[in-house]
From TrEMBL:
Residues 56-202 form the Cupin type-1 domain. PANTHER family: GERMIN-LIKE PROTEIN SUBFAMILY 3 MEMBER 3. Mn(2+) binds at residues 104, 106, 111, 150. One of its GO terms (cellular component) is apoplast. It comes from Acacia crassicarpa. May play a role in plant defense. Probably has no oxalate oxidase activity even if the active site is conserved. Keywords: Apoplast, Glycoprotein, Manganese, Metal-binding, Secreted, Signal. This is Germin-like protein. GO terms for molecular function: manganese ion binding. Residues 1-25 form the signal peptide. CDD domains: cupin_OxOx. It comes from the Eukaryota.
């Protein structure tokens, strides 16, 4: 019996359905209202457990102690245990003049950036190597799609402050400079990957480890 000419197509559809379902998956759903850390006496849980105060005082236009480099303050389920199971987290970003948040990805979440003060140049690269850039002003939002490489840059004199929401309690961050040049990958591998000599690789490694 001849195989239906549609068989390869239907196999492809099944495979892409399965793969798509995986891609759509976020944090696992919980089947209780909320989760508390193990060893916690549940009867001692009150409103304080659902409150995070660690960002108090950080939203001012000019930080009290002027910084010279970019600073990210994450509020994930590690800092704020009540987020465990709620599929959401925040980060606060402070950009002194001229600073960058270097190219990185979040393997488990998209990122919705909301600029509070200043102006930023932002961009991401999709899987077809398309670059999407924008200048965002205070009050603007920008969405970085899940898993794609992106960056932010404050080229201005004024300080910039942003918060980002992530649809994961633990979005994860893979910073490209440190992941590639600060983790002990064989220098020959890096030299071949970037088509440069090993002495240049060593210089980049030194510089990444110092920053
Ligand atoms: C606390 O509650 C969770 C579920 O809400 C339960 O799994 C856990 O066993 C409880 N812990 C104690 C010490 O009662
Ligand atoms: C849990 O907390 C309640 C109220 O604070 C207290 O009465 C109870 O003894 C505690 N249980 C344990 C196992 O520590
Ligand atoms: C709420 O819980 C926290 C930590 O367990 C405790 O320090 C605080 O006194 C509690 N507040 C009230 C109003 O019970």
């Amino acid at each position: 019996m001849a195989l239906s000419p549609l068989l390869p197509l239907s196999l492809l559809l099944i495979v892409s359905f399965i793969t798509n379902n995986k891609t759509l998956a976020g944090d696992p759903d919980i089947i209780s209202d909320f989760t508390v850390p193990q060893q916690t006496n549940n009867t001692s849980i009150n409103g304080s457990f659902f409150t995070y105060t660690g960002l108090r005082g950080l939203l001012t236009h000019r930080p009290q102690t002027p910084q010279t480099s970019f600073k990210a303050t994450k509020v994930t389920m590690l800092e704020f245990p009540a987020l465990n199971g709620q599929s959401i987290s925040y980060a606060l970003f402070q950009f002194p003049s001229g600073s960058i948040n270097p190219p990185h990805t979040h393997p488990r979440a998209s990122e919705l950036l909301f600029l509070l003060h200043g102006s930023l140049q932002v961009g991401f690269v999709d899987t077809k190597r398309g670059l999407y850039t924008q200048t965002v002003e205070a009050g603007d939002m920008f969405i970085f799609p899940k898993g794609l490489i992106h960056y932010q840059y404050n080229p201005h004199v004024a300080h910039a402050t942003a918060i980002s929401a992530f649809p994961s309690a633990n979005a994860g961050t893979v910073s490209l400079p440190i992941s590639l040049f600060g983790t002990g990958i064989d220098e020959v591998v890096l030299a071949k990957a970037f088509n440069i000599d090993v002495s240049t690789v060593k210089k980049i490694i030194d510089s990444v480890n110092k920053s």
